[in-house]
Amino acid sequence: MVDQSKVTSGFDVEFLMGEEFIHYFLLCSMETGSIPWWSESSGIDENGNLFHRATLTHPPAELEQRRLYPVHPDFVGSEHPFQHIVSTVYSHQDDEFRVTILPDDGTGADILLRVFPSVIDLLPQPPAVLAENFLPADLHISFNVVFDTRQDGLLGNIGVELALLDVTGPLIDAAVAFGASKKSILAEMKEQIDRRVPFAVAGGGSLQRIETRKFLDDPDRPKAIGVYINLALQSSPDPASLVPDRGDSSLAQNFLEPGAKMAFAFPSETYSRLGNDFKFKMAEPKPNDPGDFHFPLMDGDDQVGIIKGISVRPEIVAGPNQPPTFTNVLVIDIHGEYAIENFFDPDFHMKIRLVPTVTENGVFDLKVDFDLDLSLAAHLVAIFLTTALSFVMPKLGLSLLFLSILAIKIIERVGESMAQSSIQAELDRTSFLDTLPHKLTVEARRWDPLYTTLHRVETADVAIQVNHQGFAFDAQNVFIGRRFLPLQNMVIRSETRDANSAVNGLVYRANDIGPFLKNDLVTVFAATDRMPFVALLPPQGNIESHRVSLTLDQVMERIAAKDRHIKELDYIPKKVDVIDNQIFQILAISLTELPEIESFSRSRLRNELRSSHGAAFRQRAIDELQAELGRAPTEAEITAQFNQILENAVSSAVPGRVRAELDTRMTFDLEPHEFADLQQRKILVLGRNHLEIRKMTRNGTVTVYYRDYERPFEPNTDKRDNLLSLPRYKHTEN
Predict the structure, then answer these.
(1) Domain total in the chain
(2) Which of 6, 65, 389, 731 has its Cβ near the most Cβ atoms within 10 Å?
């Protein structure tokens, strides 16, 4: 358990990696093939000798018990192509892949990695085994946290850079004695080791500062590499304002306990910094006073409440006649007020709780739980709504108690959805949730067109403390695991049909897979995860990117597989094909594409107007400023006025351009019963909270169609079928 009195650097968070944790960090890269299981090299060495050899790296046998997933079936039995020569795959050497943290001795090496490779000379026939998992080689590697500095001064693209600097040990000595060149051996092994991998304590966002430090000299504690992070935390509603830089890594202490593989902590001061940052990121400029800010709760374009405060704190409970105790739960408490027109505004507290949990094998996780506390006023609102409902809808036959519960649940649902969305606005900066290394992502790979696999070192046998001193945990055990992230902007572009014209599959847009076509999407390693698909379709024109065709069964399999596919994609009807006053086809578009199309339209319009009207807009800006200021404007004033004129012109032309772009991009149309079938399979939702599926039986025939929701509580709602009011189009077969 972490001694929290040793969390003294002053940084927002501190992370200590022991030697075995780094050992599994490297094994995670081997699982993805980033550190090759085998390699071949050939050429002429510095002595003029021709060589062609294979080098095999053997992961330790313990890895077979440390995976939290099955090995890809196509990889089993094919770990390297030389098993008829060298049968060893997993090593039983005690020191295989052992990591030692090195002192700073001027060589630049931070860790020493011991391996027992097999080496085969492929020139003679049959090939000669020079070494088979017997003699060790010591790899001297620099292990540096690296980053890019952005124009705003923040740090992005955080990664760990591995570079092999030297190779030593009995195997290298023996190879040199038999005439091999150490220079060529080093060059060959550098190709295997040297790489930069993302360091997911940065969560893909940006940091204010990151430093590292080694701990080597405490005889009572394990060696460790410490990572010290300052998050980019706002100090005011102005997004450019940051909490002043803080922390001194020279003041840091080693709090890694004997037997622990890693440890993480932050001090109590980080609680208030996080709470303020959450609230400040909710700030919006006041409409009539851009220099001032407020904290609205929004429902689309409508303000429906305000945020009063957000706090981050440890949870405390107290029983009867018992002192308060910490539960080791971290609470993010959002205090808000919900606005009800012509009535009082009830308070609510939405609490997001990070609850420690233990899963199979003792693996540690933090479950996110939501809890809504309603004020007395909010319950009075429920009573008020109950009274209104009891008068408006007496024919429902519902008890007063039922109506009261219904009203409370309505308020709870509204409050919870608002509070959940309120903490999503993290800009492009790293949140502290991203820095929690209990499941540290080592690599992200796109094995499948429609989801990314995160390969992680996962902690187990964890001791956690969340109290007045701060937040801390350490782990006595580690595993290799993975998590899946479905493509967030996936949309259905079209359907496929069988010989009877029945829908039998869907074609999904699979953006940004170009860089992976020749590697991730086709290679297979131990940790590869890829689900079946029919075909990968190439880009087409300037609209269609790569697409992947799936059968309906494959879509359902993906939905059933955890975190590999987004279900219930939102679609809205835009046009209808009507025959004899009945809707024959519905042309729909994904809600995901609408903001994309608007952004694309704005960007294209901006470039076109700048090109065609730039000179005229500039002259207009000069004329307007001279008339307003009574003097020649400065270049900065002209630029600002020009940009305003340009944006006004763009905004006025955007609606027409969006309609035109929509017409060229809307390709997904189905009959109503086909949309209904996909909706019942939870593949998509057409007109969420607007349309409902109806069935009508006439003369033994069942017809499935969509209608607008009945709204019994809104007596003035338009009763027309609004689908029939949509613009018309004519469906054409492809």
Answers:
(1) 2
(2) 389
Same domain, 412 and 306: yes
Phi and psi at residue 374, to the nearest 5°: -100, 140
Distance between CA atoms of residues 586 and 502, nearest Å: 16
Residues 6+ apart with CB under 8 A from 521: 446, 447, 448, 449, 513, 530, 536
Q: Which helix (H) or strand (E) holds 494?
A: strand 492-497
Least confident of 139-148, 323-332, 431-440, 550-559: 431-440
Domain boundary among 379, 402, 425: 425
The answer to the question of residue 327 being in a domain is: yes
C-alpha gyration radius of the chain: 31
Q: Is 410 helix (H, G, I), strand (E, B) or coil?
A: helix
Chain centroid, CA 406 distance in Å: 35
What sign results for the dihedral spanned by CA atoms 216, 221, 225, 230?
A: negative
Whether residue 433 contacts residue 206, with contact meaning beta carbons closer than 8 Å, is answered with no
Q: Which 3 state secondary structure label does DSSP give 514?
A: helix
Residue type, 236: S
Assigned domain for 217 exists: no
For residue 396, the SS3 value is helix
105 CB-near residues (< 8 Å, 6+ apart): none
Q: Do 689 and 557 share a structural domain?
A: yes
Residue 241 lies in a domain: no
Kindly state whether residues 420 and 490 are assigned to the same domain: no
Which residue reads 């945020």 in tokens? 307
pTM: 0.84
Q: Where are the beta strands (DSSP E) in 245-346?
A: 262-267, 284-286, 289-294, 296-299, 302-317, 325-338
Q: Is residue 102 in some structural domain?
A: no
Within 10 A of 378 (CB to CB), how many other CB atoms are there? Answer: 22
What pLDDT shows up at residue 346? 72
Query: Which residue segment(s) compose the domain that 357 sits in?
Result: 282-425
Q: Is residue 510 a contact partner of residue 531, using CB atoms and an 8 Å limit?
A: no
Q: pLDDT tens digits for 254-290?
A: 999 999 999 999 999 999 998 888 888 878 888 777 6
Strands 302-317 and 98-101: unpaired
